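JOB MANIFEST
job_type = single_chain_structure
chain_count = 1
residues = 311
[input]
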Amino acid sequence: MSSEPIERRVAYIGDRLRGCRCQLCGKEYFNLRDYCGRCGEKSFGKMEEIDLFYEKGVLEVCTLITEPTNKFRKIGRFIYGIISFHNGKIRVPGRLTDKIIREDEEIDFSSLEGREVVPRFRRRYAVKRSEIIPTISLTFTFADEYYPHQEYRIANPNKDYDTPGIVGYGVYVSRFRIKEPFMERSVPFIDEDAITAAVEAGKLALIHSGVNHRLVGKVYVGSESNPYAVKPIASKVAQVLKLGEEDASDGVQGVDAVDTEFACKAATSMFKDAVSLVYYPRSNIEYAMVIGADNSQAAPITIAYSMFDLG
């Protein structure tokens, strides 16, 4: 069974921050290629795919965009630069997210350049391959700040169990806060929504568990704040995190994925389904991923609260 979404495939393939490496000479490229420009035709069939979404890069050079184009106007002023991976073998353009830059604020670029950054999955602003910024995947935060970089190491289980259980988990909460008299509320950045939170939580769950992403046979996402009217969240999570087996012909993941909606229990109810599915021997599913993700959609009120950055 496939969870192939009703959306242009270029959008899903572009959501991955991926490249390829020639197995003959080691040259790396951003985005996939059939052959190496250095080795020519003898490199056909010898291009290895590399996934940069779980890695960290270096911000080599950056500048401040003071007058964003229409697609980025809501974000306001932002820092844009060149990020390198693998000691400069791959360089990509990227935007630093989770930063509010005030009109009168001066930026010391020398204090930013040379620092390590990690990729973040944020809301899309373009889907065409011809765009300079093809997907919102090209957003980054500093590796030593909020949600620092964690290495994804795939581990083989050393013991088999007769009954299913939880092998890993991940938690993602937006960085910014509204401080009230007796509590703090998390506030998503302008480029965050329930989908971006689901992807980040799923990524952290894979890192914590060490489970091979290809072994995940079912994905559940429960939410009551889907930013789309009809498009699913679960299929987006499956494509970005490369869950399940990949269709070699077009690169789309074939894992089964489903969304559920039920106030306050959309995801918790799916734990029962996930346990039953893994426990049933004929399902041939070793691992299932269950995610609950929500973004408050309440109307703003007139009481003034102070908003701050949880660094």
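[summary]
Helices lie at 9-14, 194-209, 234-240, 268-279.
The longest strand covers residues 57-65.
exit_status = 0
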